Amino acid sequence: MLNPECVLPPRRFLTLCWFLLRPDSREAMAGKAAEAVAKTVTAFQHPWRAKLDKYRTELTKGVWGYWEMGAWKPLGISARRRAMLRKEVLTAGEDWPYDPERKAMRTKRKGHKCDRISAEKRENTAKLMLKMPQMLLDYKKRRWEKKMKEEEKAKEDK
Is the separation of the CB atoms in 20 and 10 below 8 Å? Predict the structure, then answer.
């Protein structure tokens, strides 16, 4: 009987199929052989299914590893083999739910800060220049009030 998990090269596989399904073989043997060949064909077409079943628990634990009892444990499957398995599954048209969720894009811009905010500084300066006459009047008033308080204090001290 054929082992359904065995993976044969295509040429040997076709030879085996021809031998088992040739017209002069017995009917019972042909039926059993056809079932075995169908299993082998499925295994040959989808060898990643067995690997996926084997490493399913490891893949659900994370991409790089996981914390267990306060210690970091790497996955039981290497990153290269995980990537190969992922590629096989995706090329077969299946979905791969074991990828981590994507992080948000970085919003920090590159370049010198002075170059980026110079326009904002000019706008702020223009707004402040419109307020400048009032600011000067307020400053003169505060300075005059302070001078008056000092004069009154000097008169009281004498």
Answer: no
Tell me phi and psi for residue 111, to 5 degrees.
Answer: 110, 175
Closest CA to 82 of 61, 68, 104: 61
Encode the chain (158 residues) as per-residue pLDDT tens digits.
Answer: 455 555 556 666 666 665 666 655 555 555 666 666 666 555 556 678 888 888 888 888 887 888 889 999 888 888 899 899 999 989 988 888 888 888 888 888 788 888 788 888 999 999 999 999 999 999 999 999 999 999 999 988 87
Other Cβ atoms less than 10 A from the Cβ of 22: the count is 10
Torsion-angle region of 93 (φ positive above 0: left; ψ -120 to 50: alpha; else: beta): left
State the number of CA atoms in the 13 A half-sphere of 47 facing the CB.
9
